[in-house]
């Protein structure tokens, strides 16, 4: 059990992302749609074969060591 979402990278490629249930509270208040983040210390694992959000070979999985920083752009 956990939270599945998708991320769009700098090249506008979509990827499946998974946050295990025991880590959701660490990240749910910091993740918002339409915001650019720098994400460090995550796992890249093989994606499951069914119930995928997107057809991509790999899945990004958050861990206790995952760090997300909101990127601020100056205009």
TrEMBL record:
Gene3D superfamilies tied to this protein: Nucleic acid-binding proteins
Pfam families listed in its UniProt record: DUF223 (PF02721)
Domain Replication protein A 70 kDa DNA-binding subunit B/D first OB fold: 3-70
Protein known as: Replication protein A 70 kDa DNA-binding subunit B/D first OB fold domain-containing protein
Source species of the chain: Brassica napus
Organism ancestry: Eukaryota, Viridiplantae, Streptophyta, Embryophyta, Tracheophyta
């Amino acid at each position: 059990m956990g939270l599945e979402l998708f991320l769009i990278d700098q090249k506008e490629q979509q990827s499946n992302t998974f946050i295990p249930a025991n880590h959701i509270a660490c990240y749910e208040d910091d993740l918002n749609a339409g915001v650019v983040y720098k994400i460090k210390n995550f796992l890249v694992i093989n994606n499951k074969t069914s119930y995928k959000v997107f057809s991509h070979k790999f899945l990004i999985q958050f861990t206790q060591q995952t760090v997300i920083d909101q990127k601020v752009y100056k205009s």
